[in-house]
Structures are given as structure tokens and as C-alpha cells.
Amino acid sequence: MQEEFLPFARILAQEEEVSLSAKPPEFTPANKTQKCSSQSRSSLHLCHVTVKTMDKGEKNNASEEKTHILMENGRSSTEKHLPEQKKNEKEAKHIIKNIQWSPCDSFTVQRGWQQIEEYISQTWEIHEGWLHWSEFLQEEELKYSKRYHYRACFSIPTRRKPIPRATASVYFIIEISKIKPATLPVEVFFTLESSRLIHRPGQCQFREKWLKDIIENKIILVERLTSQ
Questions:
Q1: pLDDT digits (tens, 9 = 90+) for 118-162
Q2: Is Transport given among the entry's keywords (predicted)?
Q3: Predicted TM-score (pTM) above 0.85
Q4: Which residues, 6+ apart, have CB-to-CB distance to 178 below 8 Å?
Q5: Contact 148, 115 (CB under 8 A)
């Protein structure tokens, strides 16, 4: 029996020696390099993908910030120019019209009457229903100037009352200086009936309400006198 089991025991012993003598594969530098290169490739790939994603986010954020900045700049620019635009519109509405008055050396009574008519028709914004006529009144001699007096009479007839119940007069004075250069334009000012306030062309805007107030006051006065 011992002889039969002897070869089998030897075989087992040899197999154990072989198994013990077999060592695990050593981690050589080549394997290390290969492993590291594979890990670095994967890490680089992951980093590359992450960078791309961040770039897209940054671009979106940058574009949003740029759009916001442009909108703010446009808004601030609009707000900056809005007061100027309103100011220009306001100034345009309050531009006082005037005409080019003749110089003193070329003035005549007829020329003065023509320029008064021109001034009324071109600068006074009144309803077309108003009718008027004008005339020369007198010449006034002063120490340092001459004054020429004119009157413009206004009324507003209607179909029911073609003959106006009252009229409103505007008195013009054209002054020629004796001491100033004759090439300077004449000085012009006017007053309303029953008023001492002096108005100068180019410095005040004529109002239609002034004529209406004069006529209404006259009508009220006439009605009171007739009712007594």
C-alpha cells in the first residue's frame, strides 16, 4: 500500500512546490507607465469635458451681462437725453415770433403801417374769424426821438350778429431815435385798450384772450348801462 501511494504523494508535493514557487506578476515600470497613461487620459478627458461645459456657461453669462450692460447704457442714454428733448420741445413751443423791422433811415409812415399789418398777420395766432383794420393816428415829436402812433381795431362778427356789438383796439407806437445810428431798426411797442401794460414784439406772445376780454367787458358795461 505504501508503494502504491508513494507516486501520488510525490505528485502532490511537486504541485505544491510549483504553486509556491509561482509568484504574482511584478509591477514593472512599463506596466506603471501604461496604467498611469490610461488614468491620465481618462482624467484629461474628464477635465476637457468639464472645461468645455464651463466655457459654455461663462459665454452664456458673459452674453447675458453684455446684454444687460447694453440695456442699461441705452436706458441711461435715453434718460440722459429725455430732459434735453423735453427742454427743446418746450423751447420750440415758446418761441416768440417776430418780423424784421425796417431801419430808421428807411422808415416812412406808409412803411410803418405795412409792417404792423405784416406783424399781426404773421405772428399773432388768432382765429380766422377775427376781422381788423388799422390806421395811422399821429406823429409825436420828442427831444431824442420821434414817435408814430397807429391803431388796429378788432372785431368778430357772426351770422346772427354781422354787426359786432363791441370792438377791441390795439395801439402801436414806432419810435425813431435821433441819437442812435440810423442803420439800427426802429423800436416798436404796443398797448391794449384800457391797459397801461407795454408789450414789445419779440419779447411777448400775443394772446387772443386779450381781445376777447376787452370785448366781453365792453358788452357787460353796455348791458348794465342799458338796464338802468
A1: 999 999 999 999 999 999 999 999 999 999 999 999 999 888 888
A2: no
A3: no
A4: 144, 145, 146
A5: no
- Tell me, yes or no, whether 68 lies in a domain: yes
Residue 182 lies in a domain: yes
- Degrees to nearest 5, angle at CA 8 with 5 and 14: 140
Q: What's the grid cell of residue 154?
A: 378788432
Domain, as residue range, for 130: 104-227
Mark which of 56, 72, 95 sits at the end of a domain. 95
All cell numbers assigned to 108:
416812412
- Joined together, the cell numbers standing for residue 181 give 445810428
| Alpha carbon distances (Å) from 2 to 11, 15, 173, 197 | 15, 20, 162, 155
Do 138 and 41 belong together in one domain?
Answer: no
C-alpha cell at 201: 414784439
Cα atoms in the Cβ-side hemisphere of radius 13 Å centred on 22: 6
116 & 90 share domain = no
Count of the separate structural domains present in the chain: 2
Give the integer Cα–Cα distance in Å for 47 and 139. Answer: 102
Distance between CA 121 and CA 106 in Å, rounded? 22
- 56-64, long-range: CB < 8 A, 24+ apart: none
